[in-house]
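for the record, two folds in this file. i put them one after another cuz i was lazy. first one right below, seq on top, structure tokens after. the second one comes after a little note so u can tell where it starts
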Amino acid sequence: MAKLGAGNTLKRLRNRYRLVVMNDDTYEEVVTFKLSRLSVYVGLSTIFVLLVGLTVTLIIFTPLKYYIPGYDDMKLGREYRQMKYKVDSLERQVTYQTQYIDQVKKVLTGNTSVTLDTTKLVLPKIESTND
């Protein structure tokens, strides 16, 4: 078996090949390309890098980035949190007002059952100091 060395591999990459596109009916050559393995690798790599670059720039510089899961603009996140706090405090305030209005309605209609606070207060005696 032949030994594959670095020089042998480089020589194989630089060997020239001809790619011919022919018309099937007339056997006329339509296009002829002279290629090597190295030029095909370089060409395909270049196309791959360009496609990846175009895709990345399309996502970064257009509103498509907002459709990526987990992407969150810091300003938007801060605004969402502030709005959530405001909504929570407004809901709490509406609950308090509803309870207040219900209590006022009960008092005005006379449907209150007031329980009196009958606990005895123990007040400390005040000593008068007459000096």
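(here's the note) second protein begins now
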Amino acid sequence: MRHLETINIIIGREFSTRVKKKSFLWITLLTPVFFAACFIIPVLIMNTSKGEKGRVINVVDRSGIVAPALKNSEEMTFDMQPADSDIESLKGGLSDKEGAYALVLISPLDSAGDISVVSYSREPLSLDVRNAVSDAVKKQVEDYKLRKYDIVNLDKILSDISSDVKFNSITITKKGEKEDSVEVYMVVSYILSFMIYMFIVLFGGMVMRSVIEEKTSRVVEVIVSSVKSVDLMIGKIVGVALVALTQFLIWIVFTAVLIIGFQAIVGVDFFKTPVARPGMEQVVVSSGTDLGSNIQQQLSNPDSEMAGIVKSIKAINFPYLIGCFLLYFILGYMLYASMYAAVGSAVDNETDTQQLTIPITAPLIIGLFVMLQAFQYPDASVAVWCSIIPWTSPMVMLARLPFGNVPAWQLTLSLVLLFLTFIGTAWISGKIYRVGILSYGKKATWKDMFKWMKYKN
């Protein structure tokens, strides 16, 4: 009981000291803004990516076949110029604010029936203009070459064989069938697994620096006179863990508030997708902004890209993922933080930690690389084994879980091994910490740390 009371006091001290720092407040407030921006910005880009309206593009078509395929739109107008136009004069007109946005020069057909295109503009040519011109040129050249074969009813044949393939991925599970979106799973996997990696490195390093600060300031000598060094190490690790969990929970709530606020401003609910009626071509939204109306129209169309993304996001079991994230974060952090604490106790300054932290950071980096492959091949042997091995499982398992194909026995085995490895590592780190925290003047090596492990209590 006395040990628990001592550890609780140390935990409270570590927690209160860190949450009162300005850096904690800034990171806690700004990180949810970043998370919310990751959700909001792609939505804004998808709905505001049509570019500047009314751009005029001068076109000199010397092939004689491309001009009919260049269609005007709300964003761009193609102004056809004579084939013998003075190119230098047209290029000079691009400097005027009221002049053309770009000049497109289409070459004559060569002996093989091919065409080259050159564009001139005062700023990098926008992608929508480039795509519109290149698509028109490609279509007209292909049609021109096909007509040279003098095929009867060519237009009808091309119309008949044209098709738009819609690919739906269905996974058969014990609970039934579900429609999948691999792209959405990959994004969720990347976010969760990279957050695990980032948090372990960030907060594990925080424990190490805290140990070094107390050791160099000789404060630890006063503390260990009344507290056991192992209790001090455990209290410090748990205290920083509580700081991390507090930040994480605040981030979830604050991010949700920002996203809900954005939904209220644009007048649309992303997670309550309306069902489109047969034959519906357009949905008129009487409330909300123009942006909200545009988003609502896309959500109302089951075939739209945005509706598909929202549907895939809704199909993900987020409570299950968040629960697994917390388990792997807590156990993974405790495992690595105990090793960081041992290293911090063995040195007198942060510079001396470079060589000693290589065995700690190496498994993390390996897990990071395997994690990047697990997005594409979640059932590959390397991904499966690295999701079970304790030193890489926090990152790799979080990369596999969103795909929903992790057997229960693999998840259970992974968590049990991670917990047992943490207990063993914490016991070894405690022996190193007990000796190292009061050792000064000599730069410790791995050989010294192995000796400390063998010392009796």
